[in-house]
Amino acid sequence: MTTNKLSNDQIKNEGQSTRLFYDPNSLSSFNGYRIVHTHFDLNVDFDSNILYGYVQLDVKPLSNELCDCSSTIKTENKEIPNNYGNQVVLDSRHLNIKKVLLKSNDIEKSLSFQVDIERESLTIEMNDESKDSTISIIIHYSTSNTKCSALQWLTKEQTADRQYPYMFSQCQAIHARSLYPCQDTPGVKSTFTAKVKCPKPLTVLMSGLQTNYDENTNTFYFEQQQAIPSYLIAIAVGKLASYDLSPRIRVWTESSMIRQCQYEFEHAEQFLTAAEQLLGEYQWKRYDFLVLPPSFPYGGMENPCMNFLTPTLLAGDRSLISTIVHEMTHSWTGNLVTNENWEHFWLNEGFTSFIEAKILGNLDKANGKEVRRFHAAQQWQDLQTAVATWGAAHPYTCLVYRLNNTDPDDAYSSVQYYKGAAFLWYLEQDVIGSESDFDEFLRSYIIKFGRKILNTDDFIQYFQSYFPQAPSVDWQSWLYTPGMPPITHDFSTKLEEQCNQLATQLSPITKEQMNMLNAKQVAYLLNVLLNHKSTINRDYIEQLDTNCDMSKYSNCEICFRWYQLCIRVKFEKYLDNIFEFLKVIGRMKFVKPLYAEFKSSWPELIPRVQTFFDEHKKYMNPITVKQIEIRLNSQN
Ligand SMILES: [Zn+2]
């Protein structure tokens, strides 16, 4: 197929023009002033569970003529949104703002400001300060000890080693505003430096490279030279151990988990090399990662130079490495090429999920095609579950959705991951019909949009200009229509057929049959059972347990699906295990469906579930708490 490749010179000539954009989830004045560098000077206080100190924002005024606005920008009355003239408006959630200073030539001058708690904003009056050059604003503040949604503070009893307290952040999607005053939109990228002091003998990690350490004061210094959005700012503090997996990869965790991590992620360098072969050179110098306590709300978070991962990946058999491959892949799609607002989240997650399956295939020299297809089949299955959970007509099952007055966390599900991956699969296999041409397109897309932001229209335009002779694509159905995709792919492989046969056979599944399956297949099989509601009853589940002893599985991907089946048929035997699981684990992929299953399948148990939740929520991550409350309070 004929392609229009961009030469490197052409890309350089396009320059880094600052573009104006739209973001329904930030009130900040990013179309008037743009943060270009952030410096943190913070202290970590475990007595009161706060961070305090100051942040310096270097802010560049934008000229109003700069307007290559995207089509999604709202231009009612021809006014550019998020431009408040002489005010710098920042997103600020429950921060205690002490003073705001303007710094120029080492002279600091107070600026007047107002905090709006309801609108979660901090407005700084710039009066007649010059709009000619970059200005530095210093804000002294502290975080809230009860309402900071970005941070979770753990007592020493809540950690694996039980010796010291622990703290970690999760800023995606819009929690950075509770960590520091900022332009909390993925559309603004800033470099950062940081100086963070914490009690001995704890270690601070951040989403940048460590540049220095002062042993006397236990102060850690960091730098991130690549401009990153606020949602990629990350911090963790704890008593941590580390192990070098390769010259550029180091794993961090509590010391009692370090051996397990060493084993589970031993091949991390191979994964990173495979990603580079597909996507081009790794641009962040180091790839380190932290394996967190089990209350971490996600499978992983792609914080640059320091990915965060859930310990539920430590299956002991390296069967759950796809999550680390996923987070690594974000080093290109997401962290270099970034969605301009959360309505285009699929550009981050759909691309990453699609490429993750490709890399897993490329890693398996003997059976790569089969491995990639089976991974894509698992993603398709998870997409079916997610669409069924929302309902096929729900607007959040569109690949691109509207987020006016909606927290992106409330619209979050696997849809944008796996419908996005299915869309790219369709473009590669059905529209272009050549994997190697599509791989080349991916590399060119990363060069074209790397270090920039984009929206769905930019992607469509680029695709069409790159493949000018490609058959037409029904963009409307794929991108803006709810429900399952317009085209159902055939992902069938031997691995999948084996599972489907067992799920549909009339006789009970035997121990021997189950032992033929690998861990991913067992999880897949349980998913098939979950999706075939009519055949599943209590007798079936009890028989499966008698034959196959389901209590022997400790792999969380298997456990949570088995527990969901048990709740569905009211099988009491595993209730204690389920509550124990919910007590320890905060990963929303697992706990959201379990609470939702209690609500829909076992209403008599809801008072007990509610009491359990009320007792334990103080130990849970604030992001997880909010999502469970939504499920427990829902009417259906
Ligand atoms: Zn992701």
Automatic annotation (TrEMBL):
<feature type="active site" description="Proton acceptor">
    <location>
        <position position="327"/>
    </location>
</feature>
<feature type="binding site">
    <location>
        <position position="330"/>
    </location>
    <ligand>
        <name>Zn(2+)</name>
    </ligand>
</feature>
<keyword id="KW-0862">Zinc</keyword>
<dbReference type="InterPro" id="IPR001930">
    <property type="entry name" value="Peptidase_M1"/>
</dbReference>
<keyword id="KW-0963">Cytoplasm</keyword>
<comment type="similarity">
    <text>Belongs to the peptidase M1 family.</text>
</comment>
<dbReference type="GO" id="GO:0008270">
    <property type="term" value="F:zinc ion binding"/>
</dbReference>
<dbReference type="GO" id="GO:0006508">
    <property type="term" value="P:proteolysis"/>
</dbReference>
<feature type="binding site">
    <location>
        <begin position="297"/>
        <end position="302"/>
    </location>
    <ligand>
        <name>a peptide</name>
    </ligand>
</feature>
<dbReference type="InterPro" id="IPR045357">
    <property type="entry name" value="Aminopeptidase_N-like_N"/>
</dbReference>
<dbReference type="InterPro" id="IPR042097">
    <property type="entry name" value="Aminopeptidase_N-like_N_sf"/>
</dbReference>
<dbReference type="GO" id="GO:0008237">
    <property type="term" value="F:metallopeptidase activity"/>
</dbReference>
<feature type="binding site">
    <location>
        <begin position="587"/>
        <end position="589"/>
    </location>
    <ligand>
        <name>a peptide</name>
    </ligand>
</feature>
<dbReference type="InterPro" id="IPR014782">
    <property type="entry name" value="Peptidase_M1_dom"/>
</dbReference>
<feature type="binding site">
    <location>
        <position position="326"/>
    </location>
    <ligand>
        <name>Zn(2+)</name>
    </ligand>
</feature>
<dbReference type="GO" id="GO:0005829">
    <property type="term" value="C:cytosol"/>
</dbReference>
<feature type="domain" description="Peptidase M1 leukotriene A4 hydrolase/aminopeptidase C-terminal">
    <location>
        <begin position="494"/>
        <end position="632"/>
    </location>
</feature>
<dbReference type="Pfam" id="PF17900">
    <property type="entry name" value="Peptidase_M1_N"/>
</dbReference>
<dbReference type="Pfam" id="PF01433">
    <property type="entry name" value="Peptidase_M1"/>
</dbReference>
<dbReference type="InterPro" id="IPR049980">
    <property type="entry name" value="LTA4H_cat"/>
</dbReference>
<feature type="binding site">
    <location>
        <begin position="170"/>
        <end position="172"/>
    </location>
    <ligand>
        <name>a peptide</name>
    </ligand>
</feature>
<dbReference type="InterPro" id="IPR016024">
    <property type="entry name" value="ARM-type_fold"/>
</dbReference>
<dbReference type="InterPro" id="IPR015211">
    <property type="entry name" value="Peptidase_M1_C"/>
</dbReference>
<dbReference type="InterPro" id="IPR034015">
    <property type="entry name" value="M1_LTA4H"/>
</dbReference>
<keyword id="KW-0645">Protease</keyword>
<keyword id="KW-0378">Hydrolase</keyword>
<protein>
    <recommendedName>
        <fullName>Peptidase M1 leukotriene A4 hydrolase/aminopeptidase C-terminal domain-containing protein</fullName>
    </recommendedName>
</protein>
<dbReference type="InterPro" id="IPR038502">
    <property type="entry name" value="M1_LTA-4_hydro/amino_C_sf"/>
</dbReference>
<dbReference type="InterPro" id="IPR027268">
    <property type="entry name" value="Peptidase_M4/M1_CTD_sf"/>
</dbReference>
<dbReference type="Pfam" id="PF09127">
    <property type="entry name" value="Leuk-A4-hydro_C"/>
</dbReference>
<feature type="active site" description="Proton donor">
    <location>
        <position position="417"/>
    </location>
</feature>
<keyword id="KW-0479">Metal-binding</keyword>
<keyword id="KW-0482">Metalloprotease</keyword>
<feature type="binding site">
    <location>
        <position position="349"/>
    </location>
    <ligand>
        <name>Zn(2+)</name>
    </ligand>
</feature>
